[in-house]
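Sample intake sheet
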Amino acid sequence: MYKKSFLYKKSLLIIIFLIFLCTNIVSYPTNVFSEESRGQKTKVKLPPPGTVIIWENGNYLDAIRNVTGSNLTHAAIVLYEKEVPLVYEASRPNVHRYSFKDYVKIIKDTKKRLPQFSVHFLEPSTQYTKEQLVSMKRYADSQLGRPFGVSSYLRGVPMQTIHCSEYVGHILASSGRVKTIGERETPKTICDKAKKL
């Protein structure tokens, strides 16, 4: 009886973690944004294409940490369209993209409310080739509108839904530089891959 109760509680915690794996609560490190003095606009360093964005200490941190052993809670990626940076991510309700400018606003607003959160921009150490970026963007765009969900993670097989790390993992794998573990990706595994790019 005790084993069943323990397994039920552990399964419930995993499900809660996966449901909220990709919520939109982020922050930023101080080296990404620099304020100018005397009320002038904020200057933002534009990340190069292929920059992976990792959120740390996000919503439902305890549940996520219990399952993954990590404080990393979300993954997204920057790609460009006609020299305009876009942030691609999978979160409720589906796969979507933001202009980088809008993404920065979300980060700043969240930082005001939740100062303990942070976000890390992991730039590739070697630039992607034009062909690699075309392949990455082709995959990223092909998934726009796909429903967000964690069924694939729970079952360990690809499903109709997709979660944040699975999506970013497939985008990175489209470059040919890394391999993905598909639905088993987590923000931590994506972070580890991005640090080697």
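Comment: The two ends are 48 Å apart (CA to CA). Confidence is low (pLDDT under 50) at residues 12-38.
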